[in-house]
Amino acid sequence: MWDWVSDNSGLVQAAMAAVTAMVWVVYLHILVLGMRRQRRTEILIHLGGARDLSARILVSNLGLEPLYVLEIMLTVWTEAGQRISSVADRTEIARDQHESPREATLQGALKSGDHVDIGSVTDLLDRARHHSFDAIEPGDIRHLEITVAAITAADSSIAAATRRFQMRGQGDDLSLRPLNLAARQIRSRRQRRKIEAQMRKSL
Questions:
Q1: How far apart are CA 90 and CA 143, in angstroms?
Q2: 65-102, pLDDT tens digit by residue?
């Protein structure tokens, strides 16, 4: 055995180098995956309280990196089609009632684990009416979707998440039903560019 090893020392050394290199490649792959997981954004959009139009919409940062909320968009579908509006500015609060400039908008930083109450469904619809939803009433809406766009120091592209709800009932008995268990994270470049284009329109 030792004679064979001695006679083939070059081959043994090459084999050992190949095994060592493979171990390092696997280790590096695991390390890179861990770093990507730590830097990956995870934005949660969920309902608080009731499931009617008074329900509070909460946005949470479940990622390990802090993020800065750039825009919040509301999309509604009615028989007349689809409408989109920015709802990041808190137009339901009069300017003279703002104790600080921060209260005028929902744009701002969210640390890891933090959340922000972006208002009730009624608040979001009122803000949208302030922009372009003049003729839309809650009873006209079939579905609504909330999209949150943000940036992080770890990525030059925007991070975004969206969640869609179905409007059910009639008159004073309207309620919201989430169509998915959690917010859908926008990862693809094409979808992120689409959101960026929509944000430019609202500038």
A1: 22
A2: 899 999 999 999 988 888 899 999 887 665 655 565 66
Residue type for 179, please?
A: L
How far apart CA 200 and CA 194 sit, in angstroms, is 10
Q: How confident is the model at residue 162 (pLDDT cuts 50, 70, 90)?
A: very high
Q: Three-state secondary structure along the chain?
A: CHHHHHHCHHHHHHHHHHHHHHHHHHHHHHHHHHHHHHHCCCEEEEEECCCCCCCEEEEEECCCCCEEEEEEEEEEEECCEEEEEECCECCCCCHHHCCCHHHHECCEEECCCCEEEEEEHHHHHHHHHHHCCCCCCHHHCCEEEEEEEEEECCEEEEEEEEEEEEEECCHHHCEEEECCCCCEEECCHHHHHHHHHHHHHCC
Check residue 18 and give its pLDDT.
76
**Average pLDDT over the chain, rounded to an integer:** 82
Q: What are the tokens at 63?
A: 């990622």
